Amino acid sequence: MSFPSDFVWGAATSSYQIEGAVHEGGRGDSIWDLFCRTPGAIYKGHNGFVACDHYHRYAEDADLLTGLGAQAYRFSIAWPRIQPTGVGPANQAGLDFYDRLVDALLARGIDPYVTLYHWDLPTALHYEGGWANPDIPQQFGEYTTHVAKKLGDRVKNWMTHNEPQCSIYLGCGAGVHAPGWKRPFEELRVMARNVLLSHGYSTLALKAEIPGCKVGMAPVGQTCIPASRSAEDIAAAKHQMLGIRPDSLWEMPLWLDPIVFGEYREDVLRDPVAVPHLSEADLKVIHQPMDFLGLNIYSAPIIKAGEGGKPATLDDSIDDPLTAFRWLVRPESLYWGPKISHERYGLPIYITENGLSNVDWVGLDGKVQDPQRIDFTRRYLTELGRAVDDGVPVEGYFHWSLLDNFEWAEGYKERFGLIHVDFTTGTRTPKQSYHWYREVIASNGESLRADPSTVV
Ligand code: NOJ
Fold this sequence. Notes:
Blueprint: E1 8-12, H1 15-18, H2 31-36, H3 54-68, E2 72-76, H4 79-82, H5 92-107, E3 111-117, H6 123-127, H7 136-151, E4 157-162, H8 164-173, H9 185-209, E5 214-218, E6 225-226, H10 231-242, H11 252-260, H12 280-286, E7 292-296, E8 302-305, E9 311-313, H13 333-345, E10 349-353, H14 371-389, E11 394-400, E12 419-421, E13 428-430, H15 432-442, H16 446-450
Parallel strand pairs: 1-2, 1-11, 2-3, 3-4, 4-5, 5-7, 6-8, 7-10, 10-11
Antiparallel strand pairs: 8-9, 12-13
Helix pairs in contact: 3-5, 5-7, 7-9, 8-9, 9-12, 13-14
The chain binds 1-deoxynojirimycin (NOJ).
C-alpha cells in the first residue's frame, strides 16, 4: 500500500452543518431552517441556527486544519448567503464570508475544495417548486457564476452537487430531510432531471469563469462488495451496484451516465422507464466534461452470485461491527467503490467523504478517546491503499468530518468529527483520532503500514 506523493489528504464539512449565523450577513432562509422549525422533524427539536458557529470561528477552524496538517479542506457554499432568495444580484456580505475563509485557508497552505450545493436551498426557491421548478437549473448556473467570479482566482477544485440521491429522495420522496415532501417517483425523476441540468449549467459557468478549473460531483458512492474473489461474485456485485432499479434514485449511473456518456447505457437499465426522461437538448447541457468523480462512501452490502448468477445480498452477521449510527463497518467498500466506479467512468477519483459517528465525550483528563474512529479509518484507508496499488487513480481522501456537527434529521446526536464540539460553549477539542490522522497525513499513509494492526 503506497499512496502517490501528490495524494491529497483532507477533511470535509458542509455549510448548514457547521456555520450557524443563519440570520447574519444578509443570509436568506433555507429549507433546512424551515425544516428545523417544523415540529417533530428533527431529533429533539435540534436546529442548525448556531451549529458549530463556524461563521464566527472560521479562523480557529482553519488553525485546527493546520494542526492536523491537512493539505485540503472540502466545504460548501450556502446558496442563500450568496442570493438570499436564490435569484438576482449577489449579496456582498455572503461572498465576503467565503472570501475570508478561502484566504484563511490559502494563508495556511490548505487547498479549498468547494461544493456548491450541499442541500441548503433558499426557501424562496422552495416556494417556487424547488427542484421541480423548470427554471431552477439555469438559476443554479447563475448562482454558480456569482461564486465563481468571487472565488475563481483562488479555488480550482469544484463540486456541483453533494449526494443528489439524498437531497431529492430523502428530502422530496421519503420526507425525512428538508423540505419534507413525499412525492411519487415520477416527480422525483423530474427533479433528478433538473439536478442534472443544473450540474450542466453550473459546469458551463465554472469553465467559462475559471480557465483550467476542475469540476466534479460528489454522489453517494453506492457500493457493493463481492462475497468472494470469484468471477461470479464480482460480476453479481457489479450488476447489483450499477443496475438502476425502477423505484430508486440511489444508483450512481442514474446520475453519472448522462453526464459522462451523454446517455443511459443499456447495461444499467433494469427497467427502461425508471430513469429521468432526457431529451437530446437536455443531454447537450448535461453531457459536460467531468474532471473527477467524488465518492462519499461509508458502508456497503455484501453480494454473492445466487441462483443463475443473480445478485443475492448476504445477511448481516450478529458479529458485524456497527457504528453509533448502526451503520455496518465495511472497509472493503473503499476498495470496491473506487475500483468499480473507475472501471465504468474512467475518471480520477476523490473520496469526498468517509467516516463514522461514534459515542465521543470529553474525559476527566480533558481528552477525547475515540479508538473506534481510529480503527475504522485505518481499516478503510488500508483498503483504499489496495485500490491505489491496483492502479485505481485515487487522488485524495477527505475525512467526514472535521468537526462534530449538525447531522440533519439526527440533530447533534451523531458525532462524526475528528474534533469534538461542545455545542453549548462552542469549545473544540481535537480527539485522539485527530492526532492519529495527523500522523497518517504526515507520513503520506506510511504510518498505516507500520502498525501491525493495519492488517485486515
Ligand atoms: C453524507 C452527507 O453528505 C453529510 O452531510 C452527512 O453528514 C454524512 N453523509 C453523514 O451522514
